[in-house]
Amino acid sequence: PQVFEAVAAELVMGRGDNGHSLGTLPMVISILAGVPLERLENAFPSQSVIRAMPNTPATVGAGITALAAGKWVSPDQMERAKTIFRAVGEVVEIPEHLMDAVTGLSGSGPAYVAILIEALADGGVAAGLPRAIALQLAQYTVLGTAQLLQETQIHPAQLKDQVTSPGGTTIAAIAKLEKAGFRSALIEAVLGSYQRSRELGS
Fold first, then answer.
1. Per-residue burial over 70-104, b = 16 or more CB atoms within 10 Å of its CB, e = otherwise
2. What is the reported pLDDT for 195?
């Protein structure tokens, strides 16, 4: 993002392998974090510009991408962009003012989940499990829980209540999480990434 204008100018003027400069193409899709549509449209005048925020699970076809349309984008062009990103996961269309929030949640989110999985595995090792088994258990617990929530469409709190019995092991664990500020730490992580994305775009 910090050198966007200089690179964009080169792309507009330069020629690619197909004999076209970016300045002559009908649609430009940007995946740059923190670069707003206004800057993109200034760099590519009178062109259809779409901002996209995919995330790293797209590399295995399990990502989610948020799209925001510029002022010249037609419905057909937006559908074309959605088709492109559906090849690597789910797609949502949002107004641009929400893009920094998307960056904080799903854009940076895989890092939070990776830390969660690593910490779960470390807990398993601390309790006596071999490292490889602990990591496998942690990965499939997160993967399976996400799939269960997606397929049943129940609220996460409802699933938590189903797993939590009176005086049991899970409620004892949840009490520890609440005491450590687990929820607020995740909320602050999302907001920290969101704020940094806003700073990059200013």
1. bebbeeebbebbbeebeebbebeeeeeeebbbbbb
2. 95
